[in-house]
Each structure stands twice: as structure tokens, then as C-alpha cells.
Amino acid sequence: MLKGIRIPVFALVLATFGSLAAAAQSSAELLARFKAMEDRIKALEAEVQELKGQQAATTAALTAAAPATPTPAPAVALAETATSQTPQALGGAGPAAAKVLNPDIAVIGDFLGAAGNGTSRPTPALEMHESEVAFQAILDPYARADFFLTFGEHGVDLEEGFLTFPALPGHLELRVGKMRAAFGKVNTLHNHVLPWADRPLMTQNLVGGEDGIDDAGLALSRIFAGPKDTFFEGTAQLFHGEVENLFHAYRRSDVSTVDHLRAYRDITESTNLDLGVSYSRGHSVWSPAVIDQLYGVDATVRWKPLRRSIYHSFVGRSEFTWSRLDFPGRTFTPFGYYVSGDYQFARRWFLGGRFDRSERLGNWFTVDGDIFGTPDLSDLSLHQDTGGSLVLTYWPSEFSQIRGQLRRTLYGGSQTANELLFQFQFSIGAHGAHPF
After folding, report:
1. Looking at residue 290, which CATH number applies to its domain?
2. In a domain, 252, yes or no
């Protein structure tokens, strides 16, 4: 029986020694692999060092072989070169450097047509309402320049042309030149950015007519953070004081001013709210003894769902403006406002509506910036205009736009205009972004 027990024990001892021998063999194989990997890494490091040495030698050889900076040619040679028909490279960069020196150029066409019985402020049946040419460029690390020229039925005009210093001490921004005033929302927008084919009655009657407050001057602004993730922007502007149908500079000191405070906040990831208050002051076109003061409140709400942003969006806008004119013995306070909404119901389709109401001083109205029907100053009175519009817009692409607008307006409670406006807009070139 003892003999029977010895045999399994002996087998167990042999199996144990066999396992130990196999483990020792595996450890030896792992050590050999690690040694091979270490040798391979050392070889690769040697190759990298060799390549670096070759690169340094090549760079040194190219530097030694580079030609010296050419000396300026004589004036006669330069004149001959200028008259040559062979294109010349600019420095060492050729056409690329020439492109850097050129500004971004864009052209935007605005074709407008009208049908209906409008007579108080008639729009031509067909007209090239406006062609805007934009030149924009960064001058240096400290400033940029923007020019916007408009070509219309009545000639050429500089809509805006200003120099901007965006990084002054104290986080200030300075703008110098001719610019649109920061009064409300609509006044800051060029025609081709408007969500309608026309401007609201409030702008026409109280804020400078078709062109709005657009004058030469200075603007100082600053953005600063407020509580609860609210951002504020304060703007102070000083202008020459010459605005058609609104301000007139009878003397050099008759400047006008505009002040605007804006508050912006994201309500949700898809919705934001933009509020503003404005004030403007200048000498009235009615009389050098009359000061015209404007007070404004504006509100904009935007909705754009992140997951469906190219198919659906909504923008609601509203502005309220009060004007105060102190005549000798009399004070007038005309008031105007508009409320509008624009809903994007498909990728390229927008449907909108607008309601207008505005008072105006005197039995007058404007056509292309000219006052018609101005009464005697002793017979001034307030008249009220009311209007409504339905707008449908189609965007074939970001470079073109087709719009139709049904507009009904009641002028002074007596004249009614029912009109259909249709608009085609198209652009070429690199046009910079407009204010948000």
C-alpha cells in the first residue's frame, strides 16, 4: 500500500519541477524581447540624431547660398519698369503679397419694385434702389477701416466711412469718420440687412427718414460684464449735427449727440434677449431756436434651436421713440413705434409681419430725403400714420434673396395706400459681418 502512495507523490514532484522549468523559460524569453526592443529604440534615436544633423547642414548651406538684398534701382530704371507690360512680382511673395495689401471688396445690389395705389410716399414701379460697394481692411495691429459707398437713382453717397481702434486702454473702442448712429436697432442697419423691403414709419417720421441718423463724428464704446451673465455695451457719439429732416447745424457749435446703452443675455441655449435705451439731441430743422430731443427703447428676442438651427428660427423686434420739440410757447411730443416678428419655417423660407404707428409734426412727408407739404410754422400740428405689412422671403443662397411685401398704410387718417413691394438682392465678394 505504501508503494501505491509513493507513485502519485513522485508524479506530483515531477510536475512541479516541470512547471518551474517552463516559467523560467518564459521569463528568459521576455527578457530577450525587452533587450531587443531596447536595442531597436537606441538605433532609432541614432537615426533621428543623424537626420537632425543633415537638416542643420542643409539649412546652413541654403543660407550661405542666398543672394544678398538687392539695392534699389535708379529712378530711370524704375520708370522703365513701370511702363513695361510684363507683370512684376511684389517683393519675394508675388501676387500673394499684393492680395494682402488689397481690402476685402463686396458689391450688393438692391432692386425694388412696387404696385398699388400709394400716392403719399410713392415708390417707383421699378428701380435699382441701391447698390452698395464695401471696402474693408485691417490697417495694422491697432486699427481697421471700413468704407460703404451707395449708388442710387440720385447719385453716389458715402453711407459710412470710418476708422476703428478696437483695443484702447480701459477696454475702450474708438470710431472716427462718418457712421450710422447707435440709436435703437433699425438705424444701425444697412438697407440690405433689413428684414423688410422698407423702413418703419417711425424711422421715416421721427428718426431722419430713409437714411436715418447718419453723420460724421466720433464714437466711443465699451463692453462690460454685469450680474447674472448679462453683458452691457455703452456708446457715446458726437456728430457734426447735420441730418436730413431732423437736425441742422446752423453754426459750427451746433453739434448733435447720441447715447445708447445695450443689455444682452442668453435666456436658454436657444434663446437670447437684447434690450436698449437711446437718447439723441440736436438743433431742429424747423428753427435754430428749437432743440429736437429723441428718446428710444428697443427690444429684440431671438430663438434658434441648436439641433434645427438651419430650418427654424424666430426674431421678434420692437422699438418705441419719443420726440420732444420746444417751440416758443408750444411743445410737441410726437411718438412712434413698430412691432415685428419673422419666423423661419423652412431652410430657405421666412414669413414675417410688422405693425407701425407713428405721429409726425405738420402735414408733411418725405420722399427720398426731401420734405413735401411743409406748412407754415404757425400752423404746426401732429398727424398720425398707421401701417401693417406681411412679408415673405426666400433665400436661394447666402448671396441672393427674393422678397415680397404686402403693405397697407393710412396716412394722417385720410389717405390709404395698398401696395405690393417686391425686392431682389444679390451680392458678390467678401462682405464683412454686420453688428449683432
Report:
1. 2.40.160.10
2. yes
Q: What is the DSSP letter of 186?
A: G
Q: Which pLDDT band holds residue 70 (cuts at 50, 70, 90)?
A: very low
Cell of 140: 495694422
How far apart CA 178 and CA 155 sit, in angstroms, is 18
Kindly report the CA angle at 325 between 322 and 327, in degrees rounded to 5? 160
The mean pLDDT of 144-173, rounded to a whole number, is 95
pLDDT-derived band of residue 115, with 50, 70 and 90 as boundaries?
A: very high
Neighbouring C-beta atoms of residue 283, cutoff 10 Å: 23
How many other CB atoms are there within 10 angstroms of residue 193's CB atom? 12
Show the domain range for 423: 166-429
C-beta separation of 357 from 337 below 8 A: yes
Beta bridge partners of 76: none
The count of structural domains within the chain is 1
Segment 281-293 mean pLDDT: 93
pLDDT at 73: 45
Whole-structure pTM value = 0.74
Instruction: Label residue 16 by pLDDT band (50, 70, 90).
Output: very low
Strands 415-429 and 400-411: antiparallel
Residue 81's pLDDT is 41
In a domain, 325, yes or no: yes
Three cell numbers written together for 8 = 502519485
Sorted by sequence, the CB contacts under 8 Å of residue 194 that are 6+ apart come out as: 186
For residue 12, being part of any structural domain is answered with: no
The answer to whether residue 195 is domain-embedded is yes
Question: Distance of alpha carbon 105 from its chain centroid, rounded?
Answer: 15
Helix (H) or strand (E) holding 40: helix 2-65
